[in-house]
Amino acid sequence: MPITPEQQAQIDEQRASPRPTLRAVSPGMEAHLYQAHPVLDHGLVRVIDYMGDDAAITQAARVSYGRGTKSVSNDEGLIRYLMRHWHSTPFEMCEVKFHVKLPVFVARQWIRHRTANVNEYSARYSILDREFYIPAPEQLAAQSTVNNQGRGQVLEGDEAARVLDILREDAMRSYDHYEAMLSQDGQQGLARELARMNLPANIYTQWYWKVDLHNLFHFLRLRADAHAQYEIRTYAETMCGITRDWVPFAYAAFEDYRLGGMQLSAKGVEALKRRLSGETVTQENSGMSKGEWREFEAAWG
């Protein structure tokens, strides 16, 4: 269960106490405030606070007061121009703070994005809950034979059952030992900061993650991609839905130019021009490596 009844009561109380403000608000984001969006088996994403909206991006781009003087026909057109030409600074005017509950191994991938402010639940101070990520059977897969960091064929039957049993048994056993080692019930035991070393990477942790919109888009471009690991991708996809409601013009431009677009190298541009002129272009005469050529063919045939 992502949240407890006590946490839900706190969320309901917060949402029942609106306050007037003079700052810009996004109706789409207001609907998400404090709401817990379930992810995986015990995880969640919820918005704690945010700043700015689509208008904040265009206001910063024009460096003006209020709506300013419009040098582009409309806000949506300006936002698309900014995204198309990689003018990132105006997107940094918007910020969001998420509360995320996630498995430790996902957190270790996530923290590679070093452009956010993070405060994580402390296992030195508190005892972690007995909650572990156990994949659904359809997410159990063997190592890919073509990608050293990806998944291949899905496990089935007895093999899937064997792996699931190992995951559950190891998680429960390690937590039993964690509890047994702690300094409690009159025994001397280990300090929490030492006892935690025995816990598996699929135990859940929590953090507050605050990031500006430009760096959030960078995170989502990588982690909502079809090639990203499934577990972190589920969080990114949930955050995509929230961001779409928060800044609809900016998200639409991001989806068009980043998520749905692709970047070509100078060699790729030249190869495409040669093809359009009727020339037969192969990997050997394109100047591209085999890997780049495979990616080029995947996109352009």
Automatic annotation (TrEMBL):
One protein family per Pfam: Thy1
CDD domains cross-referenced by the UniProt entry: ThyX (cd20175)
Amino-acid positions noted as binding dUMP in the UniProt annotation, renumbered to this chain: Q109, W110, I111, R112, E120, Y121, S122, A123, R124, R196, R223
Annotated spans, Disordered: 1-22
Keyword Coiled coil part of the UniProt annotation: no
UniProt remark on cofactor binding: Binds 4 FAD per tetramer. Each FAD binding site is formed by three monomers.
Reaction catalyzed: dUMP + (6R)-5,10-methylene-5,6,7,8-tetrahydrofolate + NADPH + H(+) = dTMP + (6S)-5,6,7,8-tetrahydrofolate + NADP(+)
GO biological process, one term: dTMP biosynthetic process
Residue positions binding FAD: T89, R112, H113, R114, E120, D212, L213, H214, H218
Domain of life: Bacteria
Cofactor entry: FAD
Gene Ontology terms for molecular function: flavin adenine dinucleotide binding; NADPH binding; thymidylate synthase (FAD) activity; thymidylate synthase activity
Active site: R223
Biased composition (Polar residues): 1-11
Annotated metabolic or biological route of this protein: Pyrimidine metabolism; dTTP biosynthesis
Family per similarity comment: Belongs to the thymidylate synthase ThyX family.
Quaternary context: Homotetramer.
Name assigned to this protein: Flavin-dependent thymidylate synthase
Species this chain originates from: Paracoccus thiocyanatus
Organism lineage string: Bacteria, Pseudomonadati, Pseudomonadota, Alphaproteobacteria, Rhodobacterales
